[in-house]
Amino acid sequence: MMPKLGGRELVTRLLARDPHLDVLYMSGYTDEALGARGVLEAGAILLAKPFTPQQLVAKVRQVLDATLIDRRLRVP
Questions:
Q1: 36, CA 20 to 30 Å: which among 7, 8, 44, 69?
Q2: What separation, in Å, do the N-terminal and C-terminal C-alpha atoms of the chain show?
Q3: Separation of alpha carbons 34 and 27, rounded Å
Q4: Sequence-separated (6 or more) residues with CB below 8 Å from residue 29
Q5: What is the distance, to the nearest Å, from the Cα of residue 21 to the centroid of all Cα atoms in its chain?
């Protein structure tokens, strides 16, 4: 847990400054647990702790691929 500010609130503040920011959440909780509590928005990408270097690389790739697809969809 982060002191004083949760991850979702941090992301909200950062996206207000840069709406094109790529986000990868990391947590010791599962995405099911976080989703059930309404902590993560739909479509958020989560890397559950503990994780291996290979899992980290795969999740970063997932975030970058999702961003690339989103940008291609916005191009006229």
A1: 69
A2: 41
A3: 9
A4: 39, 48
A5: 10
pLDDT tens per residue, range 12-26: 999 999 988 999 999
Instruction: For residue 25, give the H/E element and its range.
Output: strand 25-27
Residue 64 to residue 21: CA distance in whole angstroms = 11
- How many angstroms separate the CA atoms of 63 and 45, rounded? 7
Q: Are 11 and 23 in contact (CB under 8 A)?
A: yes
β-pairing, 25-27 vs 46-48, is: parallel
pTM here is: 0.75
| Residue showing tokens 């890397």 | 47
The residue with tokens 């995405």 is: 31
